[in-house]
What does this fold into?
Amino acid sequence: MKIKNILVSQPKPADISKSPYGELSKKFNLNIDFQKFITIEGISAQEFRMKKNSFNGHSAVILTSRHAVDHFFRIAKELRKEIPDSMKYFCISESTAYYLQKYVQYRKRKIFFGKQNFKDLLEVLKKHSEETFMVPSSDVPNQAMFKLLDKEKINYSQGVIYRTVPSDLSGLDIKKYDLLIFFSPGGINSLLTNFPDYKQGDQLIAAFGPSTNKTLKEAGLTVNIPAPTQSAPSMAMAIDYYITECEKERRRRSRK
It folds into this structure.
């Protein structure tokens, strides 16, 4: 199947020409659309307390996204909880770490980060095993991440501070796309909520992360392009590799 139209289940980048998807579009003459499949809603301070979550007793926080950063500081403000200057921040990537500047004086805080995925960050966490970590998360947490924390005996507690809800996709023609790209279980839940009779058929699906892959398979759907992999650490690279290999195979067949 030749890929021409792609739907990315995320908001459109501010400047797509400078994004990896812009490069993909130009390289393979693709039409790439963006659609936010999920909406983030913050959990109230009252609900946070009811779930017996707490900011107390933590010397460090693990932040896996900008959403986690925003809602961590939001819920702290609602609870009138002052974040001590001694708090250590462990971020999944350098860009997430720099995003902290929105809330703290970056150079005056102890901030650590991985390269891009949680396994990289885990190596950093293991060097700070004396810390007591808080992990702000959504109501649909990354179970693979918590399994890794448990395996390494990292001292942490989870704090659910936001939830993901399906966006309204009623105006979307889902079947016009050759490839759908998902980054979270929440995106798949949105697909099945908005299109309860959805059948994959010949449509290709790309999925980032083990939790996303697992959720798709549990829904009876086929993951054609998994990421990250050793040869393709990003989704854009995985798609580039897949299309390149398909074109090589197409040329081989045409020569026969």
About this structure: Residues 235-255 form the longest helix (21 residues). The longest strand covers residues 156-166. The two ends are 19 Å apart (CA to CA).
